[in-house]
Structure formats: C-alpha cells, structure tokens
Amino acid sequence: MGRSGSGKTSMRSMIFNNYSANETSRLGATLYVERTEVRFLNNLNLSILDCAGQDNLMKNILMPGNNQLALCQVLIYVFDVSNIEEPKDYITFVDVIKRLNQTSPSCKFFILFHKWDLVMEHEKETAKSNIISALIKSGEEIKFHELYLNGTVKIFTTTIWNETLYLAWSRVVEELVPKANIMKNYLKKISRVLNAKELIIFERKSFLSIVSYSNMFDQDNFYNFNSDRNDGYSHYGVTADRSQKISSIIKTFRKSASYYNGGKFQKLTLHSRSSIIYLDELTDTMAIMLVLPNAMLNESPINQQNINNGNSGNYLQNNQNVSSSTNANENNSMNYNYLNSNTSVKNSFEDSFIGSVIKTARDYFQNIDFGSN
C-alpha cells in the first residue's frame, strides 16, 4: 500500500514478473486492487495485493465493510521520499495500521522509504530521521514509536536501481516462511558434508533468499540484521544485502539467457581461484546456491574419507570409467595426486559428488509439508 505513484507496481513487477528497472516505465497506474498469486514453498500459495493509492480508492479499501485487508500477514507500506505530502501521507498510514489492527491483529509491518536514490547522499541520514520522527508524531495513537523499537515495524530504504529492493522483499518473505529452522539445520548438514563456505536457498520465481547458512563466522547465519540500526546491514564483515546482490545478478543473467534459450535457466557453475559456486534447482519452487573452497577435495575431511572408502556420493559405483582412469588401487581409493593434476577428471568428480548431495537434499525438501504445523 501507499500513495499513487510511489512505485508499488514497479517493484512488484520487478520481483515477481522479472521486469528490469527500465521496463517499469511503461507500467500504468493501479486501479483498485490487483492480486498476484505465487506458488510458494511446495504447497503454499502467496497472495499479493497491490492496492491503488488514489485518495478515493484508498478510502474505499479502508471502509469498515471492506474485507480486502482481512487475514493479512504482512503489510508493505511505500513512501515516495521524493514527494511526501505532510501530514496527509502520515495520517493515511496511521489509518491503515488502525484498520489492520482490527482485521489482521497479527500482521507484521514493513515500511519502505522508496526512490531513495533521489535523495542527495549527504542528506540521507537527516531525511530518514525526519520521516521517522514525523511517523512517531503522527502515530501516537497506534504507539508507532514502541512498534518501531520492538521490531514490529521494520524500515528499509529502497530503490529499483540496486539490490536494496531485493533486500527488503527478502525480509518480507522470511516473515512468511514456516519451518525455517528445519531448512537451516539441513543446510548445516550439507555444509559439513561438502565443507561449504555458504549455502543459500532462493525462491525460484522471484529469486528472493529464503534461508541461508555460513560457516565463515561464529554464528548460524551471517545475514543476520543489526536490530540497533534497523536498516538491513550487519556489524560483520559481510553486509546483510550480500545474498540480495547475488539475487539481483542472477535475475539479470537469467533474463539475458532467456533471449537465447527461451528462459530455460536451470543451473550455473563458476570456478574462481579461491571458490567454486554451484547454483541449481532444488525443487519446483526453490533453488540452492553453494559456495565451496576451490580445494574442496583436499580440505574436506569427510570428502577425503569418502574418497578413500570409495563412497563419494555413490560416485565410484556409478562412474567406474573415472575410477579406472585414475588408477584406483585394490581398496578403491582414488589416486589423489592424479585427481588434483587432471582438471577435467577433478571437475567431473566434483560435479558427481555435489550432484549426489543436492539430489538427496532435493528429495528431502520436496517432502516438507510447509502447510502443516
């Protein structure tokens, strides 16, 4: 929700319809309410209501007999920071919160200070502080200050021209993800098996990050947000929008690839001097990305054991040709020096080993019933 022209439809089209920022200029104004249905996490359905922001239409939506806002789980309220009409826009926001408190008392609130790129760099801190102060003043009746401090209301600065939009929407999606701890615990297991640096699960249509895990820091998830700053960035060496930068890059790449193969983007493998990045389909609604050390086979004690036992993801059983080409000994252990010196064989081995782990993960995630308690 938000005032007409604030950019609501543009961001929805970018996130869920794969529009580029430039393509949103051809979108028209929303009239009344536009509903988008997205299949989400196997057996869930995400229903997105894009509400018109014209004064008369907004009043209609907020009328007591209108049930459009019933059973709402998340509100995303958008302020166009380049064109805020005071105090009218703040009063309308308060009216929306009051209505949701009646129809959807468990609703979580996200506020986007949108078109943030139009604010001069040296004025951004002051501009944000002034808008929050105005919201606190206008929202005394709904105790906005308390809602903001306890995290019930989360505020993000966004623009369609960088990854801040994906950062904010990923936080929204995280609020809707059931059984996130189950997913994260399974990522920990994969990390131990593959000695993975990072793992991220994305929602496939929007490519928003759902859950992530890293062993690079002494914490479960280094995408945690700094609640003191409440702006989507963390204290740690890796910023909280890291996964959203990846999301933005992959969406751009996928769009470019669609010009050549009709949008059939399935998986991607990248090798650098220090890391290997695998991106693959996990289920019909999820994708997984793994970041592994380039010397994965050397560094992982579990992988070394699997290799020596001839049990690396059923690799030797299913790929006897590589086993023989590497002069496997009587105990079926791989000739490791040869593996490290022969790039094509090594890559084939890695692909098979990791592929078997992802296949197991795919079977696991496909069977999670996200609709049950």
CATH fold-level assignment of the largest domain: Beta-Lactamase
Domain count: 2
Name the CATH architecture of the largest domain. Answer: 2-Layer Sandwich
Reported for the largest beta sheet, the result is:
5 strands, antiparallel
- Helices and strands: which structural class? alpha+beta
Strand percentage: 15-25%
How would the global form be characterised? globular
Oligomer: single chain
Give a summary of the structure in a few sentences.
This protein is of the alpha+beta class and 373 residues long. It is built from 14 helices and ten strands.
Task: Provide structural commentary.
With 373 residues, the chain is an alpha+beta fold. It has two domains: 8-161, Rossmann fold (3-Layer(aba) Sandwich); 180-366, Beta-Lactamase, CATH 3.30.450. 42% of the residues lie in helices and 18% in strands. The protein contains 14 helices and ten strands. The strands form three sheets. The protein has a five-stranded antiparallel beta sheet with strand order 7-6-10-9-8, sandwiched between helices. Strands 3-4-5 form a three-stranded parallel beta sheet, sandwiched between helices. A two-stranded antiparallel sheet has the order 1-2. The relative contact order is 0.10. This is GTP-binding protein. Component of the GSE complex. InterPro entries: Gtr1_RagA, P-loop_NTPase. Keywords: GTP-binding, Nucleotide-binding.
